[in-house]
Amino acid sequence: MIRVLIAENVHLFRSGLVALLDGEPDISVVETVDCGSKLLAATAHCRPEVALVDLGLPDLDGIDTGAMLLERVPDCAVIIMAEHRRPGDLRRAAAAGAGGFLLKDTSPARLVQAIRDVANGERVIDADLAFSELTASQSPLTPRELDVLRATADGATVAEIARSLFLAAGTVRNYLARIVSKVGARTRLEAVAIAEENGWLWNGTSRSRRRYRPER
């Protein structure tokens, strides 16, 4: 029997997963939670073999949560489930050690088989997402520009970025102006969104849960 833990904050979708999986003769849902912190706490007593983790958990990033779960329960396979197809998320999930990455509109039969596959040590990836990853454009930004943009995405002001990266405030502003121009954005916020959508921003790094805020 494959022991499955579900981390999904939408009650209706979570209930649907339970009904689907408990109807399988070789799968048992041992715990359901609605946020990342509860997921990590639940692993201590339910010892799942497979964890279905929503990418968009309300308190913690789903991929980061999956990575922390794997540190506590290395034998548990993690399947990240996402609403949207973004190449950057797939790269982060793979770097975090996830055994699978599926979209939420995948078929019930595909999901059930994915659980069986990852429980047997295989890796499962949404085919369209994998193709998007292969055809995704390369980042036009330098490593230093990415550092500045990540800090911007984390909500840091120009002064905070300058202090953390040991740069002058004017240099940070110059970097931001070049970034906006390079990615074809109109604003810094739009530059962050474009970089995230193309998978340039995090690309294997841990994603912060802070939100962008304008410079003060």
Q: What would your notes on this structure say?
A:
This protein has 216 residues and is an alpha/beta fold. The protein folds into 2 domains: 2-133, Response regulator (Rossmann fold), CATH 3.40.50.2300; 137-216, Winged helix-like DNA-binding domain superfamily/Winged helix DNA-binding domain (Arc Repressor Mutant, subunit A). Helices cover 50% and strands 14% of the residues. The chain is built from 10 helices and 6 strands; from the N terminus they run βαβαβαβαβαβααααα. The chain has a 6-stranded parallel β-sheet, with helices on both faces. Strand 1, helix 1 and strand 2 (27-33) form a beta-alpha-beta unit. The N and C termini lie far apart (55 Å). The model is unreliable at 208-216 (pLDDT under 50).
Task: Provide tags for this entry.
disordered C terminus, 216 residues, 10 helices, Arc Repressor Mutant, subunit A, alpha/beta, Rossmann fold, six-stranded parallel sheet, single chain
CATH architecture of the largest domain: 3-Layer(aba) Sandwich
The fold-level CATH name of the largest domain is: Rossmann fold
The CATH class of the largest domain is Alpha Beta
Q: Provide the helix percentage.
A: 40-55%
Largest sheet: 6 strands, parallel
The name of the CATH superfamily of the largest domain reads Response regulator
In terms of per-residue confidence, which ranges show pLDDT below 50 for 5 or more consecutive residues? 208-216
Radius of gyration: 19 Å
Total helical segments: 10
What is the tally of beta strands?
6
Q: Quote the average pLDDT.
A: 87
Order of SSEs: EHEHEHEHEHEHHHHH
Count of the separate structural domains = 2
Distance between the termini: 55 Å
Read across the widest sheet, the strand sequence of neighbours is 2-1-3-4-5-6
SS content category: alpha/beta
